[in-house]
Structures
1.
Amino acid sequence: MKPLSSFLRFALSAVAIGAALISAPALAGPLFTVNEGSVPGTAANLVVADRISFEYHARVEQTIVGGLGGGNDPFIETGFLTKAAFGSPNGGSVQSQLNSLNGYGMYGLFTITGQSSGLASGIHANFQTMTMTLYIDPNQDTSLSVSNIAGSPVNVGGVSGDDYAIVTYTLDLGEARIVAGLAQGDFKALLNATLTPQGQLFFVNPNPFFPLESLSGNTNSFIGGSLTNSFIAMADGGGLELFQTAVPEPGTIALLGIGLFGLGMTARRQQDKQRQA
């Protein structure tokens, strides 16, 4: 099993990251079809897309064992992600009922464990395990939050009794990095995806569905990190989900991560120009 994590800092809003990623044809994946009419209370509608953008929020608990740099400093990350929009291979979003008025929401709860090592003025993080469950929130009335208290789970509030699981995930491989003094970074994880019976009603094509999913993107804030001491940090950011049928060639994970980081830097420069105008 190979690696990946997601505790980085990136000065770019999650909305801007999601918009940049959802509109990037170079990051296109294979097409899939969603049957939105399977969600209670929604209208009959089929969505054909090749990606789903997301935002995430998490707590990272990092233990430094005799100084960062040996590659054996354990961490655990607990958090949630919310799906933002379906994307088209031609760029832009696909019209859907996801997060729309009288539509539905979609969120995932995840836990990641791994080990970290020093990387110049930052950190390189390897995932060892990751579990996540993706849920449908039919009435968009579930609230989610994560606290800075070590060991505490994601707080799932509001009206969540009608939510149901559609996909469960386990880790295949991945890695992440924090550079420039805990100020910038990117991440990618390749996950084994298994649809639940209700998930098979939602993701209807191809059939059987894709066995793998990649999550990748940038982190837009990382508060509380340290290069020398154990810490609890709060992180959030955004990214992109693509399905696939096979494990990528060696090096693809790292190359795509670099590409995402460059995409985020371009978007940040555009934001800086707008603020100066």
Note: Residues 186 and 262 are 9 Å apart (CA to CA).
2.
Amino acid sequence: MDAQGQEAEERGSRMKKDLIIWMPNGHTMKFENVTEFRGFETIIQFEYDGVSTSKHRRAAFERSKILGYALEKEAGDDGN
């Protein structure tokens, strides 16, 4: 990635998607209604609606602290 702000791997999307993050301790976290997802070289960041709190939140995770993640694909998304 270039030094100009580490261009996002995935562009922020306004479509609401589900996101699952796998943690090293074996736990998973599920986020619903995820928007504005951006995957950078060292972090992932996104916005989501808290299920238990009903509040809109912004979150960020260091890639080095997670095992992986899965973001719901948009219809017609060929992965490129």
Note: The beta strands are 17-22, 28-39, 43-49, 56-62, 68-71.
3.
Amino acid sequence: MPRFALPTAALILGAWTLPGLAVTPLTPRLADTTRTALLAALTQQGLPEVAQHSVVIALTAALGFEPKANTFTYEPPAPHLPKVDVRAEPAAAGCARVDARVALAAAHLRVRGTYCLVGAAEWRSGDQAVTGAGR
């Protein structure tokens, strides 16, 4: 293991915390309004809060960084989390159509909508809907 003099180590560690120099990994995400609306709709359908984040994770994984045909299955590591199957298909320019099925015990939900890129790997939907799986 390399040994550094104290001033060198402080300089290296300090570089990681300088304003404007921090590096944030780019990961797909939902725009705040879309995420808030999704969580509210999942709550209204009775999905527990801890399970809702599994839906967000699966949805953003299927959407990825650009609109393309993709599928993603979230296999729960614990019984209190839902299994989520998501299918994304390209739609209009910069957009993807999503159909997700959520299964947790007796709760079976479906999330559908068209999500469009509004920034670097940031997705927004104006027609997102959460329904019972049979609808």
Note: Strands lie at 29-30, 70-74, 83-90, 95-104, 107-119, 122-125, 129-132.
4.
Amino acid sequence: MHKNLMLTMLLALSLLLISCSKDNQTQLLGVWEADQASQKVGSEEFISQYNHWEVTEENIILKSFNFEIQGDTTIQKFSEETRTLKYIWESNNQLQIDNQTFNIKLKKNEMNLINENIDIHFNRQK
């Protein structure tokens, strides 16, 4: 009897832990804003021009914004240019965006997108 209770508790705990952890594909979905980017001198990575990413199950909608001071308040002003790209997962930690492969590191509310030319750090907004 005691053994069955212990096995049931272990099974319940295992199921709880599995359901709480998200895979990278699910964790990527949402709105991300870049706060830091490093780019190799002489390289041209167009994605570094966009600091606001809205990631859906099939697309990444790229936008950029600046902060403007108006009186006593700071507002986020978006440019009119928007670009939508399809992406595919090559593995659990690699994305292909616009025919380029990027390593992706996801932690709760942070993401790094990295290839041989660029490293961009993002924070989750939604």
Note: Residues 15-21 have pLDDT under 50 and may be disordered.
